[in-house]
Specification:
The complex is a heterodimer.
Chain A lengths: L1 H16 L2 H24 L8 H7 L2 H12 L1 H9 L1 H6 L5 H22 L1 H11 L7 H27 L4 H25 L4 H9 L1 H9 L5 H23 L5
Helix pairs in contact in A: 1-7, 2-4, 3-12, 4-7, 4-9, 4-10, 7-9, 7-13, 9-10, 9-12, 9-13, 10-11
Chain B lengths: L4 E10 L2 E11 L4 E5 L6 H8 L7 E6 L2 E2 L4 H6 L1 E4 L11 H11 L4 H14 L15 H13 L5 E5 L7 H14 L4 E6 L2 H7 L2 E6 L2 E6 L1 H8 L5 E6 L2 H10 L3 E8 L4 E8 L6 H11 L2 E7 L4 H26 L1
């Protein structure tokens, strides 16, 4: 597994040696920062039923739609295009180690970005003082939710990157999939209110899950769902990378 | 001693079309073997199969006794590979890149620093250690690729067109480096630059359209495929008589005479296979009292052999096709 660490280190290096890492973080923080300002302003107008962080977490889909494709599109597509995959795969490392390292690299970057929003919590704490409803429990579980759902989307993005040499194609595919998984599922949940289908769709809807996480409900079922789906995607990605040995 | 590389009946098909067709060869420890062939002959394909990047369609391929498909990881631990076009991570610095590579090649932590220093020195990379690879010249990038191949001190070095795109000075340096490395490693190089293969390798394997046409030390190839070149003679004297006399010399197969610009006659003498009639020619000319200004045998270079072998092979194939058409 020390191969995975070395590979991971290289992946993180790659994000920050080029502008990509910085651009992605900047974009994310701008979007979230503006959102935070708007949210705080809104909440300042009077007592509300909802907390600032809950609203922030409910907005998770917006940056995800852009950020996930951005950070995953190059992962395998670029290696194939530049021919550096040959350098990787002729070293004594397994296909899985490479895939895992790329997945972890993206997850670390993603966690880093979201970690920076911890600043909002600090700000809230500072201005809200001792009193108030700054309940750290739901906030912590909110972050867990964001991470768990995010790692799954990253695994999907990595999968699409393995299918092509063209980064743009990979980005578009992952955008489409993230869109379906987040937005379309939510629409379906909305459309089929009541009835047997609605139960299924709501069980799969990331919005529902995120809402629960943000409320402090750490339901094991969605966590298991996202983690095992990610494992499935990583497995599929490894097979795809391996498939060059079957032709 | 078991050969370093053992390939038996290797075939590789892409959509039914064979890129390699029944290739068999062995490379023993300590040899420097050159794969020679035109583009598309199958050199890179063979190397990719040896390093486990792509699979063979049929046949048995072993490196250091391990099967490249069954024991791919073990095989890769014995090989230092530099692919065609030398793909590198252009966003990393040289030292960073090599540090990354030395780790994933499984070099034990305690040896890493020494190996890094050693390859940097061997490949002359000291001055560019901290430069970003994307900003290096082609020559330096080749050196980084070579340094990378050497990192784990592999038993076998596989270099695909290592001097492509380099200028003559750099080519010479790489060639010398390969020769030096040949003392401690087994090396398989591929090239379509014939002089390079001629100068560095102790055996040449000629590959053409997926088949091996010849496998011999360069000197033997010259001997077996073309027994020496033609002989150039410059003599002062009557042209017709010179030509007639030369034809009578033992070992001479053909004579072509040209009157030169001055009063010397330029003659091209074709020797019979396997003979060297130069002594006979000298004696004849001396006996006649003519002035001999030049008596040179043109050495057949590997290039000539290469071209000739290609031509013979293409002609043979054309004949096969014709006969098939004739039968139908």
């Amino acid at each position: 597994m020390r191969n995975v660490l070395a590979l991971l280190r290289r992946e993180l290096n790659a994000y920050f040696a080029s502008v990509l890492g910085y651009v992605v973080i900047m974009f994310f923080l701008v979007v979230m920062g503006v959102t935070f300002a708007v949210v705080v302003n809104y909440l300042a107008t009077g007592p509300k039923q909802v907390t600032a962080m809950k609203i922030m977490f409910s907005m998770f889909w917006l940056p995800s739609l852009v950020v996930i494709p951005m950070i995953t599109m190059r992962l395998l597509a670029e290696e194939k295009r530049a021919g550096t995959l040959e350098m990787l795969m002729t070293a004594p490392v397994t296909d899985f180690q490479v895939v895992l390292a790329k997945y972890l690299g993206a997850v670390v970057l993603y966690a880093l970005m979201w970690g920076m929003t911890g600043l909002y919590v600090v700000v809230l704490r500072y201005f809200a003082g001792e009193s108030s409803a700054l309940d750290l429990g739901p906030i912590a579980s909110g972050y867990i939710g964001v991470l768990v759902i995010g790692q799954f989307l990253i695994a999907i993005g990595l999968l699409t990157s393995s299918l092509t040499k063209n980064q743009v194609a990979a980005a578009l595919m992952s955008f489409a999939l993230v869109f379906i998984l987040l937005i379309v599922m939510n629409w379906l949940a909305f459309l089929f209110q009541g009835g047997p289908v609605s139960k299924l769709v709501r069980a799969l809807s990331a919005f529902e899950h995120m809402e629960d996480f943000a409320r402090g409900i750490l339901d094991v079922r969605p966590i298991v769902y996202y983690l095992s789906a990610a494992v499935g995607a990583l497995f599929a990605t490894t097979r795809i990378v391996e498939s060059r040995k079957w032709r | 001693m078991q050969p370093m590389i053992q390939v038996e009946n290797l075939t590789k098909r892409y959509a039914g079309v064979p890129a390699l067709n029944g290739v068999s060869f062995a490379v023993n420890r300590g040899e420097i073997v050159g794969f020679l062939g035109p583009n598309g002959a199958g050199k890179s394909t063979t190397m990719r199969i040896l390093t486990g990047f792509i699979p063979a369609s049929t046949g048995r391929v072993q490196v250091a006794g391990f099967d490249v498909f069954e024991n791919s990881l073990e095989v890769r631990r014995h090989i230092g590979y530099m692919p065609e076009n030398n793909p590198l991570y252009v966003d990393m610095r040289v030292a960073e890149y090599l540090k990354f590579r030395v780790k994933i090649k499984g070099v034990p932590r305690s040896e890493r620093r020494d190996r890094l220093e050693e390859v940097v020195k061997q490949c002359g990379l000291d001055e560019v250690r901290n430069r970003v690879i994307g900003q290096l010249s082609k020559g330096f990038r080749q050196r980084v690729g070579l340094a990378d191949a050497l990192l784990a001190e592999p038993d076998l070095l596989i270099l695909d067109e290592p001097t492509i795109g380099l200028d003559p000075v750099q080519i010479r340096q790489v060639r010398q480096l390969i020769k030096d490395l040949g003392k401690r490693h087994t090396i398989l190089i591929s090239s379509h630059i014939l002089s390079e293969v001629e100068m560095t390798c102790n055996r040449v394997i000629i590959l053409h359209k997926g088949r091996i046409l010849a496998s011999d030390p360069p000197e033997n190839l010259v001997k077996t495929l073309h027994a020496g070149g033609v002989i150039s003679v410059e003599v002062r004297g009557p042209a017709a008589e010179i030509a007639a006399q030369l034809r009578d010399v033992v070992g001479v197969a053909g004579v072509t005479a040209d009157a030169g610009a001055d009063d010397f006659v330029r003659v091209t003498v074709e020797p019979q296979a396997g003979t060297d009639p130069r002594e006979g020619i000298f004696k004849m000319v001396a006996a006649r009292g003519w002035t001999l200004r030049e008596l040179v045998r043109q050495r057949t270079s590997l290039e000539d052999i290469f071209v000739q072998v290609m031509r013979e092979e293409d002609e043979a194939e054309e004949e096969r096709r014709e006969s098939r058409r004739g039968l139908r």
